[in-house]
Amino acid sequence: MRVTSKNRHRLNWLFSCAVLLITGCQDKLPNHEEATRLPESQIQVIRPATVDGMQAYFQALDYRWENLNEGVPPFILEQFPDDFDKSLQTDQRKETFFMGLLPMVLLANQSIMEARRELLAMLERFKGTHTIEAEDQEWLQELTNAYGLRGNPLTDHRTRTILLRRVDTIPPSLALAQAANESAWGMSRFAKEGNNLFGQWTFTPGTGIVPKNRPPGAIYEVQRFKSLNASIRGYIKNLNTHSAYRGLRLTRGELRAAGKPVTGKALAGGLSRYSTRGAEYVQEIRAMINHNDLSVLNQTALNFSMKHATEAVGPSGSGLLASRYQVSRQ
């Protein structure tokens, strides 16, 4: 299939390093996001060697839990520092955990929302003209395939309806609560060895991590991810495509249709099949959202005008930038 430069730009929204949070998870971006963007290649990627280096980076950006309403700096954290489970008090670890992951969740939601808007605009154009450019048709087919569907959304009402349910954002409160629950605040074996924050499985032998207590005869492994960002993207794709979470997607669609906020606590009701604990797991996630006041994160947004930390700071900041991003990106 031919991929034009226009299509390649669009497809980068789907498969790029992450995707962003929209205020209230609605279909409108805050003004400062509409005005200022950074290409994916200019999003700073960090790999701090120590917790001190990670926190020094946050300080250089003036990125604090108390001022999240002023915007969240866009960056990608490849993995947690090796001493993440040793150097912090409980409250500090929780705050650092959430702040490290939040920008990547927001970036992921941004990409999804941009693709959703393009999809809606394309459907509206087709409705009026009954024609579509070849490169638009290619992009639409790639989008449909990426979300696990067959059929033509332009002519197939069922495919169109399901696709619109799937191409949608996940509230940061839900993503971060599940990440904390499934990864033991980033300290689980699977988080450390495989950057797996959400307990995702793979059924391709030899490609993941074998759980110590896996039942005899079982072939599943815990999936390895090259980065925390890849784990977040895999998790969002899972919720947006797997049949087990159809109820979650239906709830989200109903909330959108009614003009109501799409919240983590509301969507948590669709997670009963995420864990063998079923309804108990749903209550755990809702309790975690409440206890850590994570609902406020649904109102946060990326601020692309915030300054970037251009070099490692502090005595433990060496190795802060990922090797492929040695040159500071402004």
Brief descriptors of the model:
disordered C terminus, two-stranded parallel ribbon, Lysozyme, 330 residues, mainly alpha
Task: Give a structural overview.
The chain is mainly alpha-helical and 330 residues long. It has a single domain (5-20, 30-325), classed as Lysozyme. Helix content is 45%, strand content 4%. It has twelve helices and five strands. The chain has helices at residues 5-15, 31-35, 51-60, 90-129, 134-146, 157-166, 172-183, 189-194, 228-241, 246-257, 264-267, 279-291, and strands at 44-46, 75-77, 201-202, 208-209, 221-223. The chain has a three-stranded antiparallel β-sheet with strand order 3-5-4. Helix 3 links the parallel strand 1 (44-46) and strand 2. Helix 1 (5-15) runs antiparallel to helix 4, helix 1 (5-15) runs parallel beside helix 5 and helix 4 packs across helix 9. The longest helix is centred in the N-terminal third of the chain and has 40 residues, at 90-129. It is globular, with a radius of gyration of 20 Å.
